[in-house]
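User: My collaborator sent over this chain with a note saying "see what the structure looks like." That's all I know about it. Can you take a look?
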Amino acid sequence: MYRLEFIDLGEYRGDEYYLCGFVVPEPVDGENYDPDADASAWGVSVARKRIDHSNQEIVRLDTAHGQDPHIDKEYLPENSIPDKKEVLTDEWPYSRMKQYLLSTWKQYADLYSYYND
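Assistant: Without extra context I'll predict from the sequence alone. Here is the result:
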């Protein structure tokens, strides 16, 4: 997948976070690209920057691999209950996924800290 955008979300509870949006196919330079209309697959994720400069993805909404829209709850431990993957109902275009995570990322950051710190 092609990284369409990167948004620095800033610091929250002592850690830095960012949002990354990705699409298939890759936009062509010079063309007006609308991921809601032009992408065949898309997703948006939130990650926490680590002290060692690696990044820890905490939540991802996507349609990758030909799947229906779903949320990957990466903050949960492996084999957790509830499941790490939740299928979403309704329409979830790129813009809706992005807006959802822009408005809820702090909740997911708190959940990551609860399960992992």
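A starting point for your reply to your collaborator: The longest strand covers residues 2-12.
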